[in-house]
Amino acid sequence: MKFGIFHEISVPRPWDRESERTVYERALEQVRLADELGFDQVWAVEHHFLEEYSHCSSPEIFLTACAAQTKNIRIGHGIVVCVPQMNHPVRIAERAATLDIISGGRLEVGTGRSATWTELGGFCANPDDTKKSWDEIVRCLPKMWTQERFSYEGSAFRMPPRTILPKPYQKPHPPMWVAITSPGTELDGADRGLGWLGLTFGGLEEQEKRMAEYRRRIKVCEPVGDIVNEQVNTVNFLYCHEDDATGVATGQRLQGAFGYAAAQLVSAREAYPTPAYPALGLLPQLRPDGESPGDSVRVPEGLTIGSPDRIIDALKKWEAVGADRVNFLLNALEVVPQEEVLASMRLFAKEVMPKFRERSKAEAATAVAGGE
Amino acid sequence: MPPLFGTLDVAPRLHAAPRLDGYDTEAWEIADVDLLSLTLEIDDRTSALPPALHPAIPPVAYFSVASYPDSPIGAFKLAQVRIGCRASALPRGFVLRAYSDSPAACDALGRRWGYDCQPADVRLRRYHDRIVGTVTLDGSEVLRASLADPQPISGASVFHVSTMNLARAEDDGGRGVLVQVDPAYAFHRAERGVPELTTFDRAAWTAEGIDPVWPVIATFVRCDTGFPRIRYVMDAQQAARTGTRKLR
Lengths: 372, 248
Description:
The structure holds two protein chains of two kinds. Chain A has an eight-stranded parallel β-barrel with strand order 1-2-3-4-7-8-9-11, surrounded by seven helices. Chain A has helices at 19-37, 59-68, 89-102, 117-122, 130-146, 185-191, 204-218, 244-263, 268-271, 283-286, 308-321, 338-369, and strands at 2-7, 41-44, 74-81, 107-112, 150-153, 158-162, 176-180, 195-198, 232-240, 304-306, 325-329. Chain A is an alpha/beta fold. In chain A, helix 3 (89-102) crosses helix 5, helix 6 packs parallel to helix 7 and helix 11 (308-321) crosses helix 12. Chain A is globular, with a radius of gyration of 20 Å. Chain A has twelve helices and eleven strands. Chain B is mostly beta strands. Chain B has helices at 10-14, 103-113, 240-243; strands at residues 28-42, 54-55, 60-68, 76-87, 90-100, 117-119, 121-126, 130-137, 140-152, 162-167, 177-181, 186-200, 212-227, 232-235, 244-246. Chain B has a 15-stranded mixed β-sheet that branches. In chain B, a hairpin with a 3-residue loop joins strand 7 and strand 8 (130-137). The radius of gyration of chain B is 17 Å and the shape is globular. The A-B interface holds A 12-14, 49-52, 117-118, 121-122, 259-261, 263-266, 269-275, 278, 280, 283, 286-288, 290-294, 297, 333 and B 1-4, 39, 41, 54-58, 60, 84, 86-92, 153-154, 156-159, 161, 180, 182, 190, 192, 214, 216-217, 219, 231-232, 234, 240-246.
């Protein structure tokens, strides 16, 4: 099992000149530490207009800084919103290829389509069309990266033959992922040979069923790219502390802040009735039965908060249901002081990570002994 | 640091707000209700909302006209203007003002569920290319809301937020209560189309400063719905997260 971190760049009010700069600098400090501690990947989302929840509208720039300040950690550009009103597909290909070169071939590309009216409406994108445009764009990106000349006639965009430059450093191209929130998207990803980039917190039992079906489907996929990325990458909150009660309490504060900020946004389905968005985005998993404003934000099962032992136990469960990687959200609305975030990362790397490295080595040794 | 909160001065509104008979209201379940609803983005974030509520991001308003073909007080029509908001983490619509063509409905909806509802000529008409809801007050049209070019969709795609009414109650300590009205919907048909708001008299809706700036969508549904028993009330001047009281 591999571990990563991901950043929403959540900036609480009141805002002043230093607010966003402070959050970005803290995020970069976390990335440098993650690289030193042996975390495998750092991801940054793309969001627009999502006040307080995410001020990460140009993740490729943040990730370029991450690449420049680190040596080994892989750079997760995702999700990139595959909606032409937000990103012309050529610009996605160009930016990704450049980031892959700058990072020395450490790029991972996550694709998606946005789940909020706040964003889609802001760019005058029709929610009915985003699944179709995502499908077109994920099929085009590998061709843009691998073909010398590329042209296209589609419904999302069209262009005459051009040489799209630069080309990625990784050959044939960087691994591709799809963001999974709406039920069924994991099957869309499997059919196209894309990795599972989960954005759902908790829900082990349901995730297990969906992961099993994803594994079954991807074995018979027709990949959109030159490689199949058969990996399941999930997200979780991380707050690790020697004292379990302190760890759980702080972790719940982090989870509550994230859920509260997410809930203030207008989801695509809430604003615009369309079968293209069967789920309410992040709301259902975090709302308390959808009824009482007085209830606390629900704490999903399988959260990686608390003592190292508790977190090891939770991660073993995720591993058992089929997760290959876990990305951790370290903060939201800056409710956890930076020094505590860094201490949590260090403790996780010292006490938790080795348990999974040992398991991987042991499993590899068993496989060799068994002649696999 | 919490998100934005409403900044409405509740006290002046309370003088005219309905007084609840109590919280033990029986449910009205009504079949075959026609409901036209328009969603538009507005250019005001906090001034129309009480301090208990957060504005949605982006801020939106809902304009609705419904026809209830039967109820314990007979048939009536009901028009509402609501501001999209969040009670803690939950989507809601805060009622600025409602109108009904039935004085009996105005009285009952006010005393039982806290609707600030006044008598007016409320109509909901279907034409071949549009569905139009109008409210006429003392001979002047104060609302004309239309769904143009209706297209059939699944009722499963339609999301109606629950309502919050500002009311007075025996035990509210003079601070006012927000009454959550959260009916279920069973859809028989649903359509969506282009929202057109051609008349909106802000003064008639206690909506001064509310400017619809961007159309989102219009829906029309036929459904079984109604007015349920009150389950939650909250202090109008305290964050809903801490000021909510569960009744049942």
